[in-house]
Amino acid sequence: MPHDGHDHSHSLLPSDPELRVRALESILVNKGLVDPAALNVLIDTYENKIGPKNGARVVAKSWTDPEFRARLQDDASAAIADLGYVGRQGEHMVAVENTPEQHNMVVCTLCSCYPWPVLGIPPAWYKSDAYRARAVREPRAVLSEFGVSLLPDQKIRVWDSTAEIRYLVIPMRPEGSEGMPEDELAALVTRDSMIGTGLVSV
Description:
Blueprint: H1 17-30, H2 36-49, H3 52-64, H4 66-74, H5 76-82, E1 93-97, E2 102-107, H6 116-119, H7 124-127, H8 129-137, H9 139-145, E3 155-160, E4 166-170, H10 182-188, H11 191-195
Parallel strand pairs: 1-4, 2-3
Helix pairs in contact: 3-4, 3-10, 4-5, 8-9
């Protein structure tokens, strides 16, 4: 393919996503477009301050604190904000709780609305056309592909996120976790379990 003489650095990027990100970071830093210190702050923010760890703490608290659980069901936005998890994409939250009778799963069929303050950046598969279409049409098959096997009589409810409302799945507390402190419980909770495409186990 002919080139027009411009610097096409992107054509040299590796195919592996992690290596590709590192290569892009190096290019941007070398060109003086990105301050490495600012980039480190941004990465730390999304890894440790905005992300699944926040949602996991919400879930663990709901498992151990009946009063918080009730507030979460009544007004998830306020209950989550009281823990300090606020920001864009997290203003209108609803918590939906998994039970032995019903499993909940979240999708955004129109785009990729997602609760950033409690789940961080949405995974690529969440934004894919395949997930957005199939989660509604054949949720049990999609869950099976994620390794989630439900009992035949357990209902699945699919919640469609929008710009006005976003959902956080509260997975069932796993057997064998009785007596575990809140921080250890939070460590069991995964991003996928809070979307509904995963389960929590000890």
